[in-house]
Design a protein that fits this description.
By secondary structure, this protein is of the alpha+beta class. It contains 6 helices and 4 strands, in the order αααααββββα. The longest helix has 18 residues.
């Protein structure tokens, strides 16, 4: 066997050995959204603002610096989880509802449901930068 062929065979063998056990499956947009929303909930629970900032689209981060983002906290979230996801396969927009415990002005709201809009952009899901209004967060209840 020639040196060139031996080298190519050796390189291919090393490449195949390094890839053994690696899954190369392509995830659907829905699966990616589920994963991304869960990661977002985890960083909200941990209070990791540096990581949370990365869930907003590049267009938002071009205008709002990390320091501005950190200074713009109106309420302190606690434990957060994904409650529901509304998404049609192939769509570029989705609605995610997270449930969180919020401290605001000395009050604590347990399991507040916060609707979010997410956008699929350049192969990644991003949280819409517009915050929901308090009317959306705390809708008026009918009197008994």
């Amino acid at each position: 066997m020639k040196k060139g062929n031996l080298l190519i065979t050796l390189c291919l063998g090393i490449l195949l050995a390094s890839c053994q056990g690696t899954q190369l499956t392509k995830q659907s947009r829905g699966d990616l959204l589920q994963l991304r929303a869960e990661q977002y909930a985890q960083c909200k629970t941990a209070g990791d603002l540096d990581r949370e900032y990365g869930f907003f689209p590049p267009s938002y981060r071009d205008v709002v610096s990390l320091e501005q983002f950190k200074g713009n906290r109106k309420f302190l979230p606690g434990e957060t989880s994904v409650k529901s996801i509304e998404y049609e396969e192939g769509a570029d927009r989705a609605r995610v509802v997270v449930s969180t415990n919020i401290r605001f002005l000395g009050f604590e709201f347990k399991n507040a449901e916060i609707p979010q809009q997410w956008t699929y952009l350049d192969g990644q899901w991003y949280l819409d930068a517009r915050r929901p209004s308090f009317r959306t967060l705390f809708p008026a209840r009918e009197s008994p």
